[in-house]
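yo

u said u wanted the structure for the complex thing, so here. seqs first:
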Amino acid sequence: MAVTRSIVGASPRPLQLVLDERTVPGVLVKPAAGGQLTCLACAHGCVLAEGKRGICGVRRHERGELRVPWGYVAKKYVRPVETNTIFHVRPGANALTFGLFGCDLRCPYCHNAALSQALRDDLEGQPLDTTAEALVEEALGAGARVVCAAYNEPMISAEWVEHIFGFARGAGLATALISDGNSTPEALAYLKPVTDVFRVDLKGYAQEQYRKLGGRLAPVLDSIREAKRLGYWVEVVTLVVPGLNDDERGLGTLGDELRRIDPEIPWHLNAFVPRYRLQTTPSPSPHFLASVAGSAYARGTRYVYVGNAPGMAALAHTRCPDCQRVLIEREDYRVTVTSVAGGGCPNCGTTLPGLL
Ligand code: SF4
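structre next:
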């Protein structure tokens, strides 16, 4: 049986060096002028001279090869798939969720900064060496029906994620990327054969907002369009952060944009809670979130959810958009009641989209 092993007990060394030892040659790369390499894993498109590493901190040019992460995770849990804010994929099922270190963005409110910003913040960390077989075995042993790559940006470790997802799919598990969407057509196409779900964080409606996070809005919208075109099941999360993106009209334009792509893309409006570098920023008003959600629904978005908002638990339920019957009830990101029948509404027969 394959075993997951930690390196606890090894003499402490900078995390960067420990991770550099756990790399293989990547495939999401192409040659650039003067012997440089262009990384294709995310929309930054880093052009790397010999010895240089990308913005994410985990992909680097070494002797003509792009070395990329392989053979470890930073953290893994088995929890309901809904805890990844995925509501239309095997509702109520357990998911094995894993993540690594590093990120292509630097959001000041990151929920997983201890992993995603570990290299920028020079934090200590311990990779857990593992194999794809061991992770899938663990998922099956725990009764999971989904495997998710989350916590940090999975596209920066696309080759390793693709390997794990290949085994997961072979074992009958659904697979999901929980991504910031700062992706490329090449990376999305590369992962599509082994991936079911692209769960995207759409973090703002203006370039100025994305600049504060270290990214750009356009590639994220492009990735959502491309993922739909390729046949991924797509769900979108917008964390509403006071002082960053809590403008009703601006959020309305995001809803418009998503509807233009597909009105059946579920849109989750989640309330920010203080964390990482935004410890004193308050949470947004639950009524504000309900108002944005109500407006999006009234304008044609078929599935809108509100999360992390006290007193708004009913807005985390799935309703039939045609007859308004509640199909799935949730409490704190767990399914409590489901009345889906034949893949849809037992009252009017409307099909519930997703991977049920
Ligand atoms: S994944 Fe993105 S940030 Fe990392 S090296 Fe590639 S292009 Fe640069």
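Residues 39, 41-42, 44-46, 54-56, 59, 104, 156 surround iron/sulfur cluster (CB under 6 Å). The chain is about 25% helix and 25% strand.
cya
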